[in-house]
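Input structure tokens:
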């Protein structure tokens, strides 16, 4: 005799890329139907008054499953549902059974979301892209040891896309967000697009360190749920060019439903003085959007919403996802990230400044603006006011890394040399070609400055 349905996830069709619509069935003792499916015709009845019909992936998007009781879904409807089953002789039969049916998560999220898209006109391609990403976007709720509370956003991803070879336990998913969302969290939860709240925690390395990196503003958290969740795919920000469309998703101002914005990439590698060259666009974000995904027209994540310029008009910056994942993999492998720093500060040396200083025509560089007392740079002989024109790491007399210094503005002054030194191991010596004005004329010096450890102050 056949056995009743067992509430296990193996009955879910893994090829369907969204949370399936589900029927909660009281199963007769002799009935088994792990392959039974509900057609979109019946799901469409739930949306006869809605502006959008359920999202159609070209296949039925529901199954009979008794573990649907785990799902908290509104807009359910009791109806007679036809489905197929295999009888005791192995023959396929059809029967109807009264069941409570919910719409698919993708359709439900869209109906809850599109009122928040904003004034940017959307076309069919936009809708398909947005529908692909939003079922995986979550809202973070965080509280610190000091009883301070805040909100942010995040996106669900497959663990193996972040840590190659990682074997998740049943129901385990990774959720990406910004470090400034998850840092200092004592209590942390995420709200799924269907409104269900789930406890979240920072992923730990085998060294018991948390997967949080301030430099790339990335945090890796985990949730465990008893049913399949949609996940977002990782894209390649290196392929981006100015003028491409970009979308952002998140929960601005801790709004209860997802908001989407659309914009244009101004520069995929903008210099802002950060540890990475970030993706600049005009897609608006607000407090609460931090950690939510920015994604391209193929619906793949190209970065996480990170920051804006105070007082700027739609100046939005996204940390590139490839750099963030690279940081997470370093953390996973080593338990920590060590970055190098030369320890001194520079300011811009633009054409106007070079002419005023009487610097040799055609030469560029950066002016040293601060050399901390007792620092490695000071001990090496570097002084405030020196002009650095060339930097180089040598090994056995051969150049292994070099930088032609050309700092034209304050943003480059903060970022270029910092990024260049970050990947150099502390203790490595860097040769600097320095021009120093003495008695009204420039004299050159070749200084050797050891690389130190980058700190938050850098």
């Amino acid at each position: 005799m056949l056995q009743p349905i067992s509430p296990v996830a193996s009955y879910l069709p893994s090829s369907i890329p969204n949370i399936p619509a589900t029927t909660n069935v009281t199963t007769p003792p002799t009935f088994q139907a792990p392959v039974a499916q509900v057609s979109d015709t019946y799901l469409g009845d739930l949306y006869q008054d809605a502006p959008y019909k359920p999202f159609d992936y070209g296949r039925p998007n529901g199954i009979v499953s008794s573990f649907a009781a785990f799902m908290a879904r509104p807009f359910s409807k009791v109806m007679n549902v036809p489905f197929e089953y295999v009888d005791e002789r192995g023959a396929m039969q059809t029967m109807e059974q009264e069941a409570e049916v919910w719409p698919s998560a993708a359709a439900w999220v869209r109906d809850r979301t599109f009122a928040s898209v904003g004034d940017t006109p959307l076309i069919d391609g936009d809708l398909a892209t947005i529908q692909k990403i939003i079922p995986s976007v979550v809202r973070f709720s965080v509280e610190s040891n000091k009883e301070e509370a805040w909100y942010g956003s995040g996106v669900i991803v497959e663990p193996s896309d972040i840590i190659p070879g990682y074997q998740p336990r049943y129901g385990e998913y990774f959720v990406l967000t910004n470090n400034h969302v998850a840092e200092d969290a004592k209590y942390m939860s995420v709200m799924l697009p269907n409104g269900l709240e789930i406890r979240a925690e920072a992923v730990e390395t085998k060294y018991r360190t948390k997967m949080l990196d301030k430099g790339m503003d990335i945090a890796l958290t985990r949730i465990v749920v008893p049913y399949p969740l949609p996940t977002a795919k990782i894209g390649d920000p290196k392929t981006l060019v100015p003028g491409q469309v970009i979308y952002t998703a998140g929960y601005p101002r801790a709004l209860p439903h997802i908001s989407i914005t659309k914009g244009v990439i101004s520069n995929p590698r903008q210099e802002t003085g950060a540890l990475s060259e970030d993706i600049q666009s005009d897609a608006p974000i607000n407090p609460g959007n931090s950690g939510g995904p920015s994604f391209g027209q193929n619906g793949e994540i190209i970065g996480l919403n990170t920051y804006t310029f105070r007082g700027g008009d739609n100046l939005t910056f996204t940390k590139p996802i490839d750099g963030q994942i690279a940081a997470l993999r370093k953390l996973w492998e080593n338990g920590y990230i060590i970055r190098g720093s030369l320890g001194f500060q520079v300011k811009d040396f633009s054409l106007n400044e070079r002419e005023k200083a009487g610097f040799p025509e055609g030469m560029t560089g950066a002016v040293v603006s601060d050399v901390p007392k007792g620092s490695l740079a000071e001990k090496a002989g570097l002084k405030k006011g020196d002009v650095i024109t060339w930097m180089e790491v040598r090994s056995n007399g051969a150049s292994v890394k070099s930088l032609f210094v050309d700092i034209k503005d304050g943003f480059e002054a903060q970022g270029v040399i910092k990024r260049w030194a970050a990947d150099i191991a502390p203790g490595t010596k860097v040769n600097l070609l320095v021009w120093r004005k003495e008695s009204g004329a420039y004299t050159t010096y070749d200084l050797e400055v050891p690389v130190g450890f980058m700190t938050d102050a850098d």
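The chain has a mean pLDDT of 79. The two ends are 70 Å apart (CA to CA).
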